[in-house]
Write a structure and sequence with these properties.
It contains eight helices and 45 strands. It is mainly β. The strands form ten sheets. It has a ten-stranded mixed beta sheet, with helices on one face. It has a six-stranded mixed beta sheet with strand order 41-40-43-44-38-45, with no helix packed on it. Strands 35, 36, 37, 39 and 42 form a five-stranded mixed beta sheet that branches. The chain is globular, with a radius of gyration of 28 Å. The N and C termini lie far apart (86 Å). The structure holds sulfanyl-(tricuprio-$l^{4}-sulfanyl)copper and dinuclear copper ion. The site of dinuclear copper ion has 9 residues, from loops.
Length: 664
C-alpha cells in the first residue's frame, strides 16, 4: 500500500519554502470503486440515517447535511447575515449579533460540538465558536436556529472551543491569541509579549433544562496560543485537555518563530479542582465588559444584556489546577478516546503521533515527575505521561476521531490522507488518500463515549481538479468513507458551504421527532403581535409608524397604507397567522436597505423601513406560499413631510371617492 506521494524531504522543503501545501495523491479520478453508489443512495422520499452539522468557517454559518446522501438540508446563520431567513436583518434578530464592540455581523465559525448526556450525543443543542470577535453560540435543534450568543472577555480569538464535558456541564473557550487582559492598560509595545500578554481559558456552564450559557469562571495562564481541546470522559471526566503552541512567546513571523521548540504543550486542567477553588473563594472578581444575547421563542425577539464581571482563577498560584505535558511539535488536534484513557496530540510539524495516558499522567503528578516549570506551571516529563507514539503515520497530522472499535483515524493535511491506527498497539492499519489537504475529519459520535463507527467524513481544504471550475475559488469539500470494514472505502464527494472545520453527526432519530413544526399563535407574546386580522392597525408615534400586519394565504392585512410621510421610520410587524407546518410567509418592500423577512407560522417579525422618496411603494410576500402567492401584495403611499394625507389602512375596501380628504 503506497498512496502517499510525499516524502519527508518534500515535507521539509514545503516547510522551508513557507508553504504547508499538500502533496497530491495520484489517481484521483479512479478513487471510487464498486458499490459506492449503492451505499450513499437514499431514494427520493426516504430519510438519511444521520444529521451532519458542518461548520462553515469564514461564512459564519453552520450547515446541515444528511448522511450518507450528502444532501444539504439547511444552512443555519449564526455569526452572519442571512437574507434567506432575514437573520440579522429583522429587528428581532439584530441583537443576536451585538458585541461589546457593537453590531458585529460576521465571525469565523470553526468548531461544532453537540450536547451530551452520559458522554453520548443527545441531540438537544449544537454549540459553535466564533473565532474572531470571541463568541460562543448555541443552536437549538428543535428550531434549527441560533438561540444564544455569549461574548468572551479576556480573549483574542476563541479557537479551542466549544468543546464540552460529558454531561454538558461546561463548554470551554480557550483563547487563540494571548493578549493583555481586558482590565489592564493594553496600550503596550507588542514586543512586550512575554511580560504583558496572557492566555485564558473560559469555562461556560450550561443550564440542564434550557441550555442557557453563563461564564462560570476563567483561568488565566501563561501567554501561549490555545489551539484545540477535548474534555476527559469516563475515568478522566473532571479534566480538560488543551493543545497549545507558541510556547516560544513569539509576536512576529510566527511561522518561523513559533515553530522553534521541539515540543509545545498539552495543558491538562483539573476543572473539578477549579470548582473547589471557586467554592473556596479563590477566584478574583475582575471588571470586564461583554454581552450575552438570547432569543426568546415566546416574544420571538432577541435581547442583549451587558455583563461587567468575571471570576478569574490564576493558574500560576493555585496548585493542582493546571499541568503542561510536552507535545511535539506545534500540536493542533487534542483528542480523547472513548474510554477516556488516551489523549492524542497531533503536532502539525511532527513526524509521529504521541498518545498520552491519563493514568500515567495522574501517576506522574503524584510522583512529581516534572522536568521543570513553564510560567510557574509544572511541566510533566514527556515519557512519564506518554503511552506511546504512532510511528510514521503520515505528514501533517491534524485531527483524530475514534471508531468505537479500538481504532483511531487521523487526518493528514500534508500527505492528504486518512490514516487508521490501533489505539492499543499504535500500529497503522490502513491509509486512504483524500482530495486534498484534509483538515478536520468526523465519525458520528467520534469524540464521544459512543462512536457510531460506520462512516468517516474528511473535510478538505483544497478541491483543485475535483469539480467543474468556478473561477478563482473552488468550493471546499467533504468526502464520505465507509469504515465498517477493515479498509476505508471512499463512497461520496460533495461540496460544502464555506470552509468546513469541525463537524459532528448524530443518528436522525435523536433529532427528527423533536423538530418544531409551528409556533402557537395563542402563545405569541411579541409586543406588536396581531393575533387576527381584526387586530391589525397602523399607529403613529411621532415620526415612528408601527404597522401591525398579518399574513395568511394569500393576502397581507392591511394591504393599502397611506399617510406615511418623508422623515418617518416605518416598522412592519408581520405576524404569520398560519398554524400549518412549512408555510412561512415573506415580506419585502421596495427600497428597503436591509433584507426581507421570513416569518414562521405563528411568529411575528419586524422590518424597519425608512422611505427615501415620495411615491407608491409596492410590498409583497417573498415565499411562494400558494397558487395565489403572486397576488399576496400591497401598496404603501409616501407623501412629503408635513403632508395632510391622513393615516389610513385597509384590505379589500376602498375609501368611497366622496369621503376622500380634500385635494385627493
Ligand atoms: Cu479546527 Cu480548522 Cu480551526 Cu483544524 S482548525 S483544520
Ligand atoms: Cu405568502 Cu407568498
Amino acid at each position: 500500500m503506497k498512496p502517499v506521494q510525499c516524502t519527508l524531504a518534500a515535507f521539509a522543503l514545503a516547510i522551508l519554502f513557507g508553504s504547508m501545501n499538500a502533496c497530491k495523491p495520484k489517481n484521483a479520478g479512479t478513487a471510487v470503486t464498486g458499490n459506492a453508489a449503492e451505499k450513499v443512495y437514499i431514494p427520493p422520499g426516504k430519510y438519511d440515517e444521520f444529521y451532519n452539522f458542518v461548520s462553515g468557517g469564514f461564512s459564519g454559518q453552520l450547515s446541515v447535511y444528511g448522511l450518507p446522501s450528502g444532501r444539504l438540508l439547511r444552512v443555519i446563520p449564526v455569526f452572519s447575515l442571512d437574507p434567506e431567513k432575514g437573520w440579522g436583518f429583522s429587528e428581532e434578530t439584530k441583537p443576536m449579533l451585538n458585541t461589546s464592540h457593537g453590531f458585529v455581523p460576521w465571525d469565523d465559525l470553526h468548531h461544532v460540538n453537540m450536547s451530551q448526556t452520559n458522554g453520548e450525543i443527545d441531540g438537544r443543542w449544537v454549540f459553535v465558536n466564533g473565532n474572531n470577535t470571541p463568541r460562543l453560540a448555541r443552536v437549538d435543534l428543535t428550531t434549527f436556529r441560533t438561540a444564544e450568543i455569549l461574548e468572551l472577555p479576556n480573549s483574542g480569538g476563541n479557537h479551542s472551543s466549544p468543546f464540552i464535558t460529558e454531561n454538558t456541564e461546561y463548554v470551554v473557550a480557550g483563547t487563540r491569541f494571548s493578549v493583555p487582559p481586558d482590565n489592564v492598560n493594553g496600550d503596550v509595545p507588542i514586543n512586550t509579549y512575554k511580560q504583558n500578554f496572557k492566555g485564558n481559558v473560559t469555562f461556560v456552564s450550561v443550564d440542564k433544562d434550557n441550555g442557557n450559557m453563563e461564564i462560570a469562571f476563567q483561568i488565566e495562564t501563561p501567554g501561549v496560543n490555545f489551539d484545540l481541546s477535548h474534555a476527559g470522559k469516563g475515568p478522566s471526566h473532571g479534566w480538560f485537555f488543551f493543545s497549545c503552541y507558541n510556547t516560544e512567546g513569539a509576536n512576529t513571523l510566527l511561522e518561523v518563530n513559533a515553530s522553534k521548540n521541539d515540543k509545545d504543550f498539552i495543558m491538562a486542567v483539573n476543572w473539578k479542582k477549579a470548582e473547589e477553588y471557586i467554592k473556596a473563594g479563590k477566584g478574583k472578581k475582575v471588571p470586564v465588559k461583554y454581552v450575552h444575547n438570547k432569543f426568546n421563542e415566546e416574544t420571538h425577539m432577541a435581547t442583549t444584556e451587558t455583563l461587567r464581571e468575571v471570576t478569574v482563577l490564576d493558574s500560576r498560584e493555585l496548585e493542582g489546577l493546571c499541568y503542561f505535558i510536552p507535545c511535539p511539535k506545534s500540536p493542533h488536534g487534542c483528542d480523547v478516546d472513548p474510554t477516556g484513557e488516551y489523549i492524542v496530540g497531533s503536532g502539525k510539524l511532527a513526524a509521529l503521533i504521541p498518545v498520552f495516558s491519563y493514568t500515567k499522567m495522574l501517576k506522574a503528578i503524584e510522583d512529581k515527575a516534572f522536568e521543570g516549570e513553564y510560567g510557574k506551571i509544572p511541566v510533566i516529563k514527556y515519557e512519564a505521561a506518554l503511552y506511546g507514539e504512532v510511528q510514521k503515520p503520515g505528514l501533517g497530522p491534524l485531527h483524530t476521531e475514534f471508531d468505537g472499535r479500538g481504532n483511531a483515524i487521523t487526518s493528514m493535511f500534508v500527505s492528504s490522507e486518512l490514516v487508521k491506527w490501533n489505539i492499543k498497539d499504535l500500529k497503522v492499519l490502513d491509509r486512504v488518500p483524500t482530495y486534498y489537504s484534509t483538515g478536520h475529519l468526523m465519525i458520528p459520535g467520534g469524540d464521544s463515549r459512543k462512536p457510531d463507527g460506520k462512516y468517516v467524513v474528511a473535510y478538505n481544504k483544497i478541491t483543485k481538479d475535483r469539480y467543474l471550475p468556478t473561477g478563482p475559488e473552488l468550493s471546499q469539500s467533504a468526502q464520505l468513507f465507509d469504515i465498517s470494514g477493515d479498509k476505508m472505502q471512499l463512497i461520496l464527494d460533495y461540496p460544502t458551504i464555506g470552509e468546513p472545520h469541525y463537524a459532528q453527526a448524530v443518528r436522525a432519530e435523536k433529532i427528527k421527532d423533536n423538530s418544531r413544526k409551528i409556533f402557537k399563535i395563542e402563545e405569541n407574546r411579541h409586543p406588536y403581535v396581531a393575533k387576527g386580522e381584526k387586530e391589525t392597525k397602523v399607529v403613529r408615534e411621532g415620526n415612528k409608524v408601527h404597522v401591525y400586519m398579518t399574513a395568511i394565504r394569500s393576502h397581507l392585512t392591511p394591504d393599502n397604507i397611506e399617510g406615511i410621510r418623508m422623515g418617518d421610520e416605518v416598522y412592519f410587524h408581520v405576524t404569520n397567522l398560519e398554524q400549518d407546518w412549512d408555510v412561512p410567509h415573506g415580506f419585502a418592500i421596495k427600497g428597503a436597505d436591509n433584507g426581507e423577512l421570513l416569518i414562521m407560522p405563528g411568529e411575528t417579525t419586524t422590518l424597519k423601513w425608512t422611505p427615501d422618496r415620495t411615491g407608491i411603494f409596492p410590498f409583497y410576500c417573498t415565499d411562494f406560499c400558494s397558487a395565489l402567492h403572486q397576488e399576496m401584495t400591497g401598496y404603501l403611499r409616501v407623501s412629503p413631510a408635513g403632508s395632510k394625507v391622513p393615516l389610513t389602512f385597509s384590505t379589500g375596501t376602498n375609501l368611497p371617492a366622496e369621503d376622500l380628504p380634500a385635494g385627493q
